[in-house]
Write a structure and sequence with these properties.
single chain; 26% helix; alpha+beta
């Protein structure tokens, strides 16, 4: 049986412009949580939902869907690694000056148990370990709807200049 999936996303240029209007990266993230600012296209693709944004932590939720399954019938590790990476990246970006952004240079993920596509939600909670002038590090844990550890990871980031043009 063939299945079909469709979804919508906001124009990425609107997101960049919104980032330029906010007073801080943290403000932009809180705007996404409140629904007044658009989410990145990848967030729409994976149905990532930011649920907590502070200078201490960043938390995302994601539903487990059938299209995320690998050939073994469990959620693909790449999808879960993307969730962890997204949470860690934005946790770092929340701490940066508006003129900078972070990009992942190294990502390590440790999978503890498999997940099924049962429609429940997983959560990735990230914390920043270090932010310097050109480099940052973070860690994250992924838990299932029952609060069990599913995966954990850490990442390193390059901090680079980035301008966000405001219309």
């Amino acid at each position: 049986m063939i299945r079909e999936r469709s979804y919508r996303w906001d124009d990425p240029s609107q997101l960049i412009a919104a980032m330029g209007r906010e007073e801080s990266h943290l403000g932009w993230m809180q705007g996404m949580i409140e629904g007044r600012l658009p989410a990145p296209a990848l967030g729409s693709t994976l149905e990532l939902r930011p649920i907590e944004a502070s200078l201490e932590t960043m938390t995302f939720a994601m539903p487990l869907r059938e299209w995320m399954l690998n050939p073994a019938g469990v959620i693909h590790g790449g999808v879960l690694a993307t969730l962890l990476d997204s949470a860690m990246t934005l946790a770092v970006i929340a701490r940066l000056d508006r003129s900078k952004i972070a990009t992942t240079t190294t990502l390590t993920t440790h999978f503890v148990r498999p997940l099924l596509a049962d429609g429940s939600e997983v959560r990735a909670r990230a914390e920043v370990l270090y932010v310097g002038r050109t480099h940052a590090t973070a860690l994250a844990e992924l838990t299932d709807a029952k609060g069990r550890l599913i995966a954990h990871g850490d990442a390193a980031f390059a901090i680079i200049p980035m301008s966000f043009e405001s219309p």
